[in-house]
Amino acid sequence: MAIAPRRRAGRLFAYWRSEQRTLRQGFVALLISTLAALVAGITTSSILPTLRLLPSLYILLPAATGMRGTIFGAIGARLGTASAVGLFEPTWRRTGVLYQNVYTGVVTTFSSALYLAVLARAAAIAFGYPSISLLQFVTISVVGGLLGSAVIMALTVALSSVAYRRHYDLDTVSTPLVTAAGDMVTVPTLFVATFIARQPLANTITAWLCVAACVFVTAVGFLTRLPIARRAIYEMIGVIVLTPILDILAGTVVEPRLEQFAAFPALVAIIAPLVSDAGAVGGIYASRISSKLHLGILEARGRPGSAAYLDASLVGAFGMVAFLLVGTSGYVYSLFVGTTPGAGVMIGGTLLVGLLATLIAVVVGYVIAVASYRFRLDPDNQSVPIITSAMDLAGVICFMLVLNMLGVTGRA
């Protein structure tokens, strides 16, 4: 009876030994991503006065940052798969994998930014929240989104080239770094765009120029003859339309509680790294499952194979270390600002949120990868975008549930 568990433990240990390089790369990537997302969280905490001045702007933040992860996480996943099957080359040939993925990123950035502005305004109206105007949402979403995307695009391309030359596992490295960069860069660029939105005339002119540019770029993108770009753009339509709804809902959960969180700024600061790491862990898992499906290592079936369970153990280890770092860093920050709900809440509560979020990420990541593969869709275009957005909402809900369970919401 005890032989089977020992065999499983031995196989798990052997797998971890064989994946030492992946473990090192993954832990380093998650360390960097967690610190970057913590910077984003602290930035969000520091602009609370602006969020009060521009009501319902917070609703846009998770969607805007999540969309950066959706677009560029998918690019990283596609480049990771291309690298795994030997098709990736760091060249700028128009017909090459790299060029066509950059083209896809530009088109989807323009189209999604306008859509997010409309969605955020509609959500504010639907939930009865006070809100800035639609044109202000357009200016902030498009201008801030474009500025952030330019930085993240450069990072994604550079990361892919370095991974190619040094033989890194792009599936493990790309998703955490890209999603964290999306968090860290997008919040400041959206904040910069608010200065335009506060000037009525400048905002009106900028907003209508943004509308025209987004419509034009989207139309050109849908007519492209580049095969890889065309497939990616068309397959990501559903992802871009549906996944931001989850991020918008995440924003609506937090928006009415901003005043409560003002008593403990550290709680606001750890929201970004919490949901970022949840999405990153799920993205790593989904990317690895997608690559194994492409390579024939895994079969697209409802019951996971042993390789899927082994990968789940890998990302589980990633998750616990990442969430421990988030909780510890958040606790240190709470001591720095002088208001803390305690180590038990900041560290223990964060670990509990992380455990719940990791379990959800593994289940959702596997189901999405297998379902998209069965429907003959590229899992790289579906898995990472959906899992990162799903974990934004799931992470926030888990966070709120744990806070309520620990009685922190009442204290705030």
Which tags fit this structure?
412 residues; mainly alpha; 85% helix; globular
The biggest sheet, with number of strands, parallel, antiparallel or mixed sense and barrel status, is: none
What percent strand? under 5%
Mean pLDDT over the full residue set? 83
Gross morphology is globular
The Cα radius of gyration reads 21 Å
Number of strands: 0
**Helix count?**
16
Provide the succession of SSEs. Answer: HHHHHHHHHHHHHHHH
Low-confidence stretches: none
**Can you give the helix content as a percent range?**
over 70%
Straight-line distance between termini: 51 Å
Please give a quick description of this structure.
With 412 residues, this protein is mainly α.
Task: Give structural notes.
With 412 residues, this protein is an all-alpha fold. 85% of the residues lie in helices and 0% in strands. The chain contains 16 helices and no strands. α2 runs parallel beside α13 and α5 packs across α10. The longest helix is centred in the middle third of the chain and has 33 residues. The chain is globular and about 65 Å long. It starts with a helix and ends with a helix. The model has no long low-confidence stretch (mean pLDDT 83).
